[in-house]
Sequence to fold (830 residues):
Amino acid sequence: MSLLFCNAAFFKQVERYIQIHRSGQIKMSIRQRITLLIVISIISVLAVGGYSISQARVNAADVKRVTSDVVPSALATADLVAQVKDMQLVILSLISETDANLAVQANNKLETGKAELKKSIDFQFDHAFDATQKGLIEQSRDKLTEYFSAIDETAKAKLSGQNDIAQASYYGNVVVLQRELQQVVDTLRTEKTREKDGAITALNDNLSKTAKGVAALSAFTIVALALFGFVLYRQIIKPISQMETTTSEIASSQDFTRRVPVKRMDEIGKSIVAFNMMITKIEENSGLLKQKTHDIQTMLQNMPQGILTITSGNLIHPEYSAYLETIFETNEIAGQNVMSLVFADTNLGTDILSQIEAAISACINEDAMNFDFNCHLLAGEIEKKMGDGRTKILDLNWSVITDDKDTVVRLMLCVRDVTELRALAAEANKQKRELEIIGEILSVTQEKFQEFIMGSLKFVEENEQLIRQSVDFDSEIITRLFRNMHTLKGNARTYGLRHLTNTVHEVEQTYVELRKPHAEWAWDQDVLLNELLNVKGTLDYYVKINEVSLGRKGAGRRGGVEHYLMVDKKQISETIQFLEKTAPGNLHELLAAHNAVRKTLRLMGTSRIIEILEGVFASLPPLAREMGKLPPIIDIQDNGYVIHNQAKAMLKNVFMHLLRNAMDHGIESPEVRASQNKPQAGTISLLMDTQDDRLQMRLSDDGRGLALGHIRKIAIEKDIIKSGELMSDEEIAQLIFRPGFSTASSVTEISGRGVGMDAVRDFVSREKGSINISFTDSNEGAEYRKFEMIVSLPKVLSENVEGFEFQHQEDVEDHMVEFKAAEFLTEKQA
Fold:
């Protein structure tokens, strides 16, 4: 600036000399003019030189500010945008990753990205030039904190195996915060770009002004200033112009390998060096961007998951993951209609396909809210038939790609081939089911299992005959069908055969519908036979597992009682020895021997009632737990009576119903019993005796008794009796034997079908027996009355061997006439 002031003073002195010369006071020679010209030229050169040097320093500072501060800061915002997008890709790969180790690696990469992103934000804060930029950076810091917190929650859920929570957190929090952070970063980038463009424009303006000033001063002298201008052009203007030209060429060609040559290390030279460093930085960043793009492409080429994006017209974008070709077994994917590639030859109907196509069209180029409204119409899993007839099960996951205005640009579809997973799951379920059935079978002795199977097949065969014989609907046939299935289900439940119980229950439900007064189901022999065939198939499956998997063929050690003598060898040996020692002439010894042989022979083909009902007793503790009651105490007094084996199946069926009824309707809950000063565990008693040449089996419990009042109310509601009709307690009690009559408040697996007592009477009558109710109190007309159920059978079905030792039954102790079912189970299992 001082040099310029000196030049101005010198010009004033020259002007004074010119004025003196014009006034004639001084006469100048040619030499003086030449000298003056030279002086003016020198002064002009000095003025131009001083001006140029001064402006060069100013412009150099501006160039340094642009190249060293403004432009790198603006370029850093581009890196910041790329880092945010990288974070989006990393968290997306973490969410979609199925391999635990790869998920951990993605999480580590996520932590590195978080650190770099925070470092970039800090760099922008250090290079903020005004309050607006600082405010945007502070806002981005706040968004970044929320964004990292949401990412941590998502990653934590993903790494802990909570995939549903991780995806919910991702789409519920991370995606929203990503979008908000992206908006702030994009705004900061715009602000930085605006500042960069302004600084470059100001720099260019200053350079232009410098050139114009130099040109004006050069007009004082053509020769001197031309030479000076030429030198000035070579030293100042040309490098700057070359730098501008190079900048334009780099911008148009994207060739970041070019540099501006540096000839002098002055201010212009340093600016050129800074410019070249900026280009180097841009080249490095461009390389990083290319590498990241290459990484993304590599990921798409190698990830074992099909990823594609859908553009307008439901067309598939050319960029997709290579594994997609493996899934769909074609390389003609780009440009195809997604409905043709993905949804052709699938199990989806025409209506569903139309909904999917309409939903896709309604989302693209529309607000993202449309996707939220229509995403439920997009299929999540399909079965696709391939060209060779194979069927693939594909899992579909839909998401959106939006722009700054939250408009859906493309739909992204992730496809996974889960055919093998589904097959493995089905095989695992099959094996699990088989193992469960094995466990059920092993809990039943071989003999009892064989007896159960034989009895169940008889029920199935009887039902099959009834169905084949009945062309039209017959209520009596339906009742008999229902009795058999209900009894079969009860027996299966008694032995804990859960899978068979469920199968029989489904068939039983069909009979329930047919029994309704206005049944919607029609009598269809084919349907009923097919359902019955399903039951038989399940029974055969149990038999196959028992024989093949467990190797338990036949009826077991104690099977076939009709064909074998179930008497202990020791007892027979003792009887033979007794006969051999008997003196033929001693009538007393002969009579004793006769009685011993008679008792031994009478044991053939007989069993004690405790042995016959062992399975039913064993089912009472779990049944009690289901009802919230304690296992009952079973008091058996057989008085030496044993039962012929021909009646075993009938007695099991009968007492299965009777004991379950006692548990369900008779014995109260522990709380109610405690309030009535009763033991919390109920007692069920069975007394065997003979009367009028018949075997009497009397079953009773210490519960509340028969609910006569409730029975009468149900009978009135079902229009069985009239409201004012007078009936004795005995007549009311007989109503429970009517087909379909039940006092249960709701239908359960245990009661409420209205078939129990009807079936019991039917089973007993088949053996020429009867069942009756006998009250044991004198409370005529009471709501509840104590009673006993009397099962009367022909005496020929039993034998009295009182005093005879049951040594052949080693699994039932001789003295066991009263036991608690729970204790009995524990002993049997041990």
